[in-house]
Amino acid sequence: MNAARSVAIAVFKESVRDRIFYNLVLFAVLLVGASILMGQLTAGQDVKIIKDLGLTATSVFGLFISIFVGINLVSKEVERRSVYPLFAKPIRRSEFIIGKYAGLLLTLMVNVVVMTVALYTVLFFLSRGVSPNVQRAWDAPPIDPALLKAIGLIYVDLALVTAVAVLFSTYSSPMLSAVFTFGLYVVGQCNEDLRRLDQIVGGPAAGIVGKACYYLLPDFARFDIKLAVVHGIPVSAGYMLWTTAYAAAYVAALLLGACVIFSRRDFK
Amino acid sequence: MTPAIRTRELTKDFPVGFWRPRPYRALDRLSIEVAPGDVFGFLGPNGAGKTTTLKLLMQLVFPTSGDAEILGRPVGDVGIRRRIGYLPENPYFYDHLTAEELLGYYARLFRMAPVERRQRVTAVLDRLGIGAERRLQLRKFSKGMLQRVGLAQALLNEPEVIVLDEPMSGLDPLGRRDVRALILELRDQGRTVFFSSHILSDAEALCSQVAILAKGRLAAAGRLSDLQEFAVHGWELVVSGVPPHVLDRVRSRVRSVTAITGDRYAIDLPADARPEQWLAELAAAGATLVALNPIRETLEDLFVRRVSEMGDGGRPATATRVPRRGPGPGSAA
C-alpha cells in the first residue's frame, strides 16, 4: 500500500497544480454574493436559503470535480503513456487504481472542508445581528451541527461518483466515461422510480428491468438529506451509518471491478 | 548461468477492427536469451515488433502465448521490477512535476528512505547532465531533455538489467554520444543493457550481441562476430596522382573506379586481387597510396540481407494476419 500512497500524493499534488481548488474562490463569491442579496430580498429566510445554497453548491462543485477529474485519472495516463515507466516500477496495477482513487478523495475532502468552513462563516455573520427570539422561531439554529451530517453524506455521495468515474475510465475514453458516469448518476437519482417502473410504464417486462436496475444501480437519492437538515428534521445516526455502509459496499465493488479490468488491459 | 532475459516462443496477437476484430500477429514465437553483462541490440525495421517485445517484457501487454523471464523470474513478478530499469520510446511524464519531483515519486515506489532517495535522485540527474533544469516543470522540457529524464528514471534504482526502447531517439549528436558512453559505462559496471534501435551504427559500436527482427519474427540472433561474414569481400584502394592513360587501363580490370576529389580515385578491387601487386603497378606509374581498406560485411549489410530474406525487402513490416482461434464467422485465413 506504500505504492498506492505515493500515487495518491501525486494525484493530490497534480490537483493543486492543475488549479482545481480555484473552484473554491467561485464558491466563496457565490455564497457571499447570495447572502448579501438574500439579506436584502427576504425577511428571516436568508439563513435557510444560504444553508440550502451552500449545501447544493458543495454538492454540485464536488460532483464536477468527481466526474471531470475522475474520468481523466486513469485514461489520461494511459493515453499519454505515462503509465509505461510507472508500471516498470514495483507497483501493482490495483495499487495504482486505489492510489488514484484515494488521491482524488483527498482532493475532494480538502475541497469539502474549505467549503464547510466558508458556509459556517457566512452563517455566523448572517445570524450575528438576529435576536435570539427570532432565531428560536427558525426550523433549525443558524450554526447547526446537523449541517455536518448533510455535508458528510455529500462527501460519501462524491466518493461513490468518483468510484463510478474511475471504473469507466479504466476501459473507456474520457468523453464516454463522462457520459456514462453522469448518466448513471442521473438514473441513480430516480432509483425509487425504477422500482415502481411497472406501475409507471405498465407491463411485466418493464417491472423486471426496473427491479433489476433498482437492485443493481446505486441509489444516489438516499445521500441527499439537505432538505431535512435545512428544515431541522432529525436524521438518525443509524441512517447515516447504514447509508455510508451502503456506499462503501458499492465503492468496494466498483474499485474491485476497476482493478480487475485494468490489471488485464493491454497498453498498445 | 541464469540469463538476464529469456523469452520462449513469445507471441502476441492484437485484435484489429471494431465490429469484427481480427487478430494480427505482432510478434511470432520469439525465443532469445541475453547473457548477464551483455549489451544486446534488438534491431529491426519500423513495425518489426521491437516495441511489442519490450512491452511484453515490462508486462505493459500480455502474451498470447509463450513466456518471458528476467533474471530467472517471470516478468509478471512485481518484485523483479526492483532490479530492472526501463526507458519507453518517446517517454512522456507528468507535466506538472519537476524532474526532481518525478524521480522522487518513482524513488518512493522503490521504498527508498528519504536520505537515500535524495542522494539517488541527485546522482542520476547529475549523471545525465540535468542541471538547474531539474527544478523546472517537465512541460517546459525539450524532447531531448525528456529523453535524459527518461534515462535518469531508468537508472534510479541501480538496476541489474536496463531495457531501453530507442534510447537515441530525439537526441542531438552530442546527446547520442553521451548515451553511447553511458551504455558502455553500464556494461563496465557489469549491468545488462537490452536496447532496441534502428540506428545500426549505434548497435555496431555498442553491442556484443544482436537480434534482428522482421515482420514479428526473429531473422538472426547471436554475437556480431558470428553473424557478420568476416571474410574479405574485396579491397578499396584509394590513390592519387594516377596518370589518365593508366587509369583507363586499370578500369577494365577492376570492379569500379570512383573519382573522389581532384586527382584522387577509389578503386574497388575484387576479393581475389592481390593488392600489393596493384600498389606496385600504380606506384611505378607515379601514383601515391592514400588508403587501402579490406571490404567486409557491415551490420547494415547483414541487416538488409537478413530482413530481405524474411521477404520484407528492408521496408517497414506490418503485422502478419493470423487465423482466428476456433470456428466462427469472420475467420481469416
Summarize the structure in words.
- The complex is a heterodimer of chains A (268) and B (333).
- Chain A is 78% helix and 0% strand.
- Chain A has 13 helices and no strands.
- The radius of gyration of chain A is 21 Å and the shape is globular.
- Chain B contains 10 helices and 15 strands.
- Chain B has helices at 50-57, 99-109, 114-127, 143-155, 173-188, 200-206, 224-227, 244-251, 275-284, 299-309; strands at residues 5-16, 22-34, 39-43, 65-70, 73-74, 84-87, 161-165, 192-197, 209-214, 217-223, 234-240, 256-261, 264-270, 288-295, 320-321.
- In chain B, the strands form 3 sheets. A 6-stranded mixed sheet of chain B has the order 6-7-8-3-9-10, with helices on both faces.
- In chain B, helix 2 packs across helix 3 and helix 3 (114-127) crosses helix 4 (143-155).
- The longest helix of chain B is centred in the middle third of the chain and has 16 residues, at 173-188.
- Chain B starts with a strand and ends in a 12-residue tail after the last strand.
- Mean pLDDT of chain B is 86; it is low at 312-321 and 323-333.
- Classes of the chains: A mainly alpha (268), B alpha/beta (333).
- Chain A binds chain B through residues 2-3, 6, 10, 13-14, 17-18, 80-92, 264, 266-268, and chain B through 14, 55, 58-62, 78-79, 81-82, 84-88, 90-94, 96-97, 101, 105-106, 108-111, 137, 150, 153-154, 163.
What labels describe this entry?
heterodimer, A: 268 residues, mainly alpha, 13 helices, 78% helix, B: 333 residues, alpha/beta, Rossmann fold, Alpha-Beta Plaits, 2 domains, six-stranded mixed beta sheet, 10 helices, 15 strands, 31% helix, globular, disordered C terminus
